[in-house]
Amino acid sequence: MNMQGQLIDLFASLLLLISFAMLAQRRILRLINLFAWQGLILSVSTLVVAWSSHQHHLYYSAGLTLLLKVIFLPWLLHRLIRKLDIKWDVETLINIPTTMLIGIGLVVFAFNLALPISALSATITKSTLGIALATVLLSFMMMITRRKAVPQVIGFLAMENGLFFAATSATYGMPMVVELGIALDVLVGSFIFGIFFFHIRETFDSLDIKHMEKLKED
Amino acid sequence: MNTSTLSLQLLQNMLVVLAAPLLLGWVNTCRAWMQSRSAAGIFQPYRNLAKLFQKDAVLAHNASPLFRYTPYILFVSMWLAAAMVPVIAVDLPLSTVVDVIALVGVFALARVFIALAAMDVGTSFGTLGARREMLVSFLAEPALMMVFFTAAAISHSTSLTTIVGVLAHKEFVLHPSLAFAAIAFIMVLLAENARIPVDNPSTHLELTMIHEAMILEYSARHLALIEWASAIKLFAYITIGFALFLPWGIAGVGEWNALPLALVLLVIKLAAAGFGLALLESVSAKLRIFRAPEFLGTAFLLAVLGILTHFLRTSVA
């Protein structure tokens, strides 16, 4: 295997490591910082894929990832945390060691699921498809096991990171139009989330989404 | 086995047993520097040992022979463990007959004996320490095994000499799985050697101590042997780390003229590792004892991830 393939494998492993670190994280500010790191690794690995496969549109998506997910979104989230004054510890539904063990199970599942798919793929990054899938599933689990709204949104954004990585690793990226569309969606989505946070807190005096379950009774 | 490899084995054994307190002294010195204290000097562990060997041993009335023999068993098994690891050369008679699983077994043997000896006299501290030690070690052992299996999966052998041979003397390949395993190994090393995130080796506080609580009843030459054994254990763990993750410089089979270079590199690597250990201990706070399972669970998780990423790559590529 050549050097670029090895580098991409290394970045993929780091991505998986950060997903687990996010799953284990108790502090919300560190969660946001980890999200920023994940974006940075995603951006660099996209750059390496672009360089090794000569796909020029991947350079743009790497730059877009850097701007959006490493600089803008973490800044926005930091600002939201400050404005809402919510520096509490993250509450989880399942305790953290159990979450990690379920995480290992998810990784095994994702790797097995990816095997036949990556056997069909001809790109140099095909061995990372399993890791991308595992990242998606782990972020999904983070959304499920967290009680408050902000970590759930971070889980959603991390899931998008995983999907993006899956796209670059399986098919050298989606068409540019789709990528731009998704980036815009994420941007608009996070703005809406920001507005939602304020509304949720004004209505319930808390960001705990269990209060929202009462709504269905009326 | 011929005389040259035998003499190499003996040389390494003497090196390990004599250099281990020096490594401990270096770690303590580095830590003192980082905490703006004046250091006692890197030869302080030797002075401690000499002082302890001169004293008269005191034993409890109800101490059984087990209590008296444990320091010797501990010392010998640590020495044996360190002798199995290729520290400066691969060409060792001992490390070809045993593999990493036997190594884990030797560590387990020493641990069982020290825990039994701690409970032997019947003081509450000893029992407390033994229980805590067992809690930590039963969590650390699977992680350690997984780390070894990751390296073994890459080199298709559980023998440390073969692992070193494959990693150091073949073409350079980046192994992400080894990076995971290395982090897991560092976490296990900290836990198994009673280092700061899990245990603090320099306090005698009831709430925090694990290893110290087990050896409170020991004195004089028994205590000296135990202290020396734990220094050798630290040395052995660090050199296992080198063999798995930084094997460059360890002399291959029959490379006699590579030995001086191997020694120099070993000293440099040990100095760096000691500094890193002191740094880790200075920047991190001690965990609550009930957080230790989480810490070691993370180590296990990382080791499993390492082995999984390895299989993902080999099954696709």
Automatic annotation (TrEMBL), chain A:
It is a multi-pass membrane protein. It is found in: Cell membrane. Keywords: Cell membrane, Membrane, Transmembrane, Transmembrane helix. The chain crosses the membrane at residues 6-24, 31-52, 58-81, 93-111, 117-141, 153-174, 180-200. Its main location: membrane. InterPro entries: HyfE-like. This is Formate hydrogenlyase. It comes from Sulfurimicrobium lacus.
TrEMBL record, chain B:
Keywords: Lyase, Membrane, Transmembrane, Transmembrane helix. PANTHER family: FORMATE HYDROGENLYASE SUBUNIT 4, FORMATE HYDROGENLYASE SUBUNIT 4-RELATED. InterPro entries: ComplexI_Subunit1, NADH_UbQ_OxRdtase_su1/FPO. The keyword Transmembrane applies. GO terms for cellular component: plasma membrane. It is found in: Membrane. This is Formate hydrogenlyase subunit 4. It is a multi-pass membrane protein. Its main location: membrane. The lineage of its organism: Bacteria, Pseudomonadati, Pseudomonadota, Betaproteobacteria, Nitrosomonadales. The keyword Ligase does not apply. Pfam families: NADHdh. The chain crosses the membrane at residues 6-27, 72-94, 100-122, 134-154, 174-191, 234-253, 259-280, 292-312. GO terms for molecular function: lyase activity.
